[in-house]
């Protein structure tokens, strides 16, 4: 896990605010207080910053933020995941992002999406890599060491266990490339 400093964390939060429509003081205030998509990514940014600290106080804060994420948003996003800037959750409910998932910039993730390991103990538990400007629609699952290319679309309820090339659409169970 790459060390993220305070300056990078604040820069990412500002970028996320702009992505969520905060272009003035009052819009920033409304977004900060009432936008569930922004609150979810804010929780991740703060938790990721705190998880790097060794103090017991920060470890307690990480547990608190993880608890808030599950109870308030019904989401579980690992603070060890690497999430890029301007990620957008149009309906931030029941989203699961595993430990070592890598997500690029400008990705949209709808409700019910799972990004994680395939869970097979006899194989290395590897995680997906989602590149830039990808859209993951409701209920889709991306499992294992899968690479989803730039500008790709993962259809609703698709189960992806194969690589998806750039600018492609993956649909179905198991997913096929259109």
Topology, element by element:
Layout lengths: L5 H14 L5 H10 L1 H16 L4 H18 L2 E2 L4 E2 L12 E2 L4 E2 L4 E2 L4 E3 L12 E2 L4 E2 L4 E3 L3 E2 L4 E2 L4 E2 L8 E3 L4 E2 L1
Parallel strand pairs: 1-3, 2-4, 3-6, 4-7, 5-8, 6-9, 7-10, 8-11, 9-12, 11-13
Antiparallel strand pairs: 13-14
Helix pairs in contact: 1-3, 3-4
Family: Belongs to the transferase hexapeptide repeat family.
Catalytic activity: L-serine + acetyl-CoA = O-acetyl-L-serine + CoA
Keywords: Acyltransferase, Transferase
Task: Pick out its properties.
4 helices, transferase, globular, 178 residues, 5-stranded mixed beta sheet, alpha/beta, Serine acetyltransferase, 14 strands, LbH_SAT, acyltransferase, 5-stranded parallel beta sheet, UDP N-Acetylglucosamine Acyltransferase, domain 1
